[in-house]
Amino acid sequence: MLGLALSAGLISTILFDRSARLQAAQTQSAAVAQGVDRVLRYEIRNLERALNGMAAEADSYAAEPPLWDLPATIRGVISRNSELQDIDLFDEDGHPLHRGVNAPTGFPSILRSSLPPGRLGIGALLNQARSQPVVQLVLRTPQGNWLVAGLRTSELRAMLEDVDVGRGGGITIMTSAGVVLAHRGANTEHLLDDAAGGPSQLHAIDNGTHLVNLASSNGYPFVVVAALSKKEATKPWGNYTAFLTSLLLLYWVGMLYLMRRMAVSEAARRDVHVALQRHADWLGKAQEASRAGVWAMDIASDQVQASAHAAELFGFPRKEGLIPLTDFFHRMHQDDRPWVERTFAQALENGSPFRAEYRIVLPDGQQRWISARGAPVLDKEAQQCMTGTIVDITERRLQQNELERAESQFRELFERNPLPFWVFDVQSLRFLAVNAAAVQRYGYTSAEFLEMTILQIRPSGEAAAVQDSVDDPSEPRDATPIWLHMTRDRRRIHVRVHSSSIRFNGRDARLVLAEDVSERVAYEADLKWRASHEESTGLLHLRTLLERVDADHSGNGCSRPYAIIHIQLRDLELMSSTFGRRTRDALIHSVAHRLQQISEGYGHLAYAPSDAFVLAVTQGENWSDLVDALVATFTDSIESDTGVHRMEGWIGIAFQQLNERAEQVAGHAVLAAFEARVQNLPTMHYSTRMTERVAERLDTVHRLRTALAREEFELFFQPIKRISDGNIIVAEALLRWRTKDGYVSPATFIPLCEESGLIAPLGEWVVDAAARASRSLASYGHDIAIAINVSAVQFMAGAVSSMLRDAHKRYQLPRGALHVELTESAMLQRPEMAQATMEELRKDGVCVSIDDFGTGFSSMSYLRDLPLDHLKIDRSFVQNVHNDPRNASICNALVALGHGLGLSIVAEGVENVSELEWLSTHGVDCVQGYYIARPMPLEALVAWLETNAAA
Question: Which tens digits make up the pLDDT trace of 850-900?
């Protein structure tokens, strides 16, 4: 039954494994198709944005006379999108308005369809004589004209180069009408013939030879078909099946063999039982002839036939019968049983006589000595067995043991003591006897010990102290002092000596016990070191350093002031999360080693986990040279397992003033290091103004913690005007903190909120207040979105999208009612997370703008990859743009860049009509600044909107 169950289980496992492998291959095929589809979607979406970006220029070109240099724009688009061969412009009736040099010929049939403006369509696949095949991409402009671009199919083939579809698989990119645009691997076109309804209806099929998947979720009329070979996917399954089948056959062969062996063993057991019964009569007669217990054992069965007297000696019932040999051994004393078993086994193996004297323990706890003898013999059937006698020798053994115990008591006490024991002559100091523990601990043999004196195991120079201890007549002797002893290999050990005077072989001698306390001494020394040092670097604890400085300048009567230098390392936590804690610890150890070398001769160095070192400069005249050396330390890179790293740090310096304690001076050095960090300087000396600023900072943080509850925060709103029609489309929400002393600048309290963790609740309040303002504006009939500034800390927390979603739901706001403005730093800290969050915002209908563009570490990659809507030019570039050629060049470049990527351009800080006219002339979409309107409360904004609407 067990074999059948295992067989059924293995067969089920084989079938399940095949199904799982096919399912995994189907999943892989789907993943390949979806991956290529996603890349294709990004590529086509960029081309669609590029064509949409030049749609307005194409309509202007179609006017009479042309208002725009369309060929230059086309060349610019093609230079940024090398996958395009050329771009043509047709009017709504299909007449060409502009033709490129290598443009596709013919009017695409799709232009006759009702393709909506701004949406990309696909024309025919053209195979030109000398050029690469191209597929026509068609986009209808707002004025009804047509842009036709030729997309090189080599770009599509490049997407398939590194796709893994195995040797027997293939992957194809085609149009929704079934036209193949790019292909690699096995031919997948015939696989689609099995799908009813054509490729637009295909998702996943199994045609018997391949596992096919289609992906068409890109929103464009393209289809990606991936196919994996079933034969290739199930090849490992065949080997797995063969292995399990072999294992099952091996199990059945072993099972049959085991059943056969069990049958043979059962037959042999029955034969032994019959033989024991035949010997029963002979054993009874032997017992009657002898007054000692008689026993006989069948070697094959390990059963002992004991006479009644023999059974009684071992505490068994007084009757003849078979008793297992193990029962006899179990009655033996546990100290005697092992060697008796070995002796008995050797007698059986060698066929020699068996003799043994041992103790047995009766059920009532009584012990009895037994003398057992036996010898192997042959029975009537020439079968070997062992027989013998047992005699009770308890009385004789007790007398003998008492005598032996008296003789060995002293020797056992001396020899078996686990601590080194010896006896030496008090006159000659020569060893008279040593135990085994002394021989083992000190490395000398017993003979060598007896040729030595006790001075030879002591360090040189201790002879007088040893003699004084020997001459001390007091008893017992104090064991408090710790002595140093030397082993044969000249290793020193710490011992505590216990001794007493005795007579040994007629001599005055001293009995000595030497207790090795080396581990305890080392442990106490280690504890003392650990209490004052930091284990990972080996440097002093900060507390220990401060105590030593105070002790040096109070106990020694030193009045000379000292300096404490606080070295704050930079970005260690970032280093730990990026390269691992092992690299971080290695860098700290390297820095500690360098600082320790530099600080030698100046004073004490301590480590304050996890990112600071403290140096107390108590000696040396040229302490400024020390500071220069410390600064130079951070200019050299440090090598580790993960590469070469450069450590940076801030150095704060504070001098002792007016008998200050070291702890106060160290606190001043910390403030100086913090100020160096704020001002981004390598070193900073402490001043009393720093303490005042810290106090002010702490007071501001304290007031910030209660500002929300006291409703001290307000939102002001600054309109953003669209230049083309003069409409107000967005109002930027600006946070204000109103205190009894007036308004506090956001540049002052926003960084404090981020550092103290208050930015999260404050950000939630801003979102809620902006949502309420949006609803209020809607109630007055103003369809204006509210833009919210989100800090980098708040954005990286990952809760922005959920807060906006909740606000829309709570106040029933339409899509697009709230916008988000981000700085470049927020997006560049964690680009992948930023992209995911912004895509989630885009999905919820939230527009995203880049605020203060160009003032940070601008990266073109995030402009290309992130889903952005608006680009806001910083006011520093807008200021006096009509007169400043440099600002004008920067603004022109930013406008061209933003429009090329399909982004709307917003100029901040417009303060006069000249700036506005210049921005309007050079393509800026929207403006914001004091010239338009100053930031104002919501009620003032509503009144301002009413006034401007009336005007």
Answer: 887 766 555 566 677 788 889 999 898 999 999 999 999 999 999 998 898
Q: How many CA atoms lie within 13 A of 597 on its CB side?
A: 7
| Number of residues that make up the chain | 951
Architecture of the domain defined by 700-950: Alpha-Beta Barrel (3.20)
Could you check whether 270-400 and 700-950 share the same CATH topology?
no
Under 8 Å between Cβ of 682 and 631 = yes
Backbone angles phi, psi at 73, to 5 degrees: -65, -40
Pairing, β 563-569 against β 120-126: unpaired
Burial class (CB in 10 A: 0-12, 13-18, 19+), 476: exposed
Rounded CA-CA distance 669/678 in Å is 14
Tokens of residue 394, six digits:
């308890």
User: 270-400: which CATH architecture?
Assistant: 2-Layer Sandwich (3.30)
Strand segments, DSSP code E, in 362-399 are: 367-378, 384-392
Confidence of residue 599 (pLDDT cuts 50, 70, 90): confident
pTM of the predicted model as reported, rounded to 2 decimal places: 0.41
pLDDT tens profile 426-448 = 888 899 889 888 888 888 998 88
What is the C-alpha end-to-end distance of the chain, expressed in Å? 97
CATH 3.30.450.20 fits 27-231, yes or no: yes
Please state, in angstroms and rounded to a whole number, the distance separating the CA atoms of residues 702 and 65. 67
| DSSP per position, 255-267 | HHHHHHHHHHHHH
- Tokens 């398939």 correspond to 160
| CATH architecture assignment, domain 538-686 | 2-Layer Sandwich (3.30)
222-229/170-175 β-pairing: antiparallel
Please, what CATH class does the domain formed by 417-521 belong to?
Answer: alpha beta
Output the pLDDT for position 43: 83
Tell which phi-psi region holds residue 285, choosing left (phi > 0), alpha (psi between -120 and 50) or beta.
Answer: alpha
Domain boundaries, the chain: 27-231, 270-400, 417-521, 538-686, 700-950
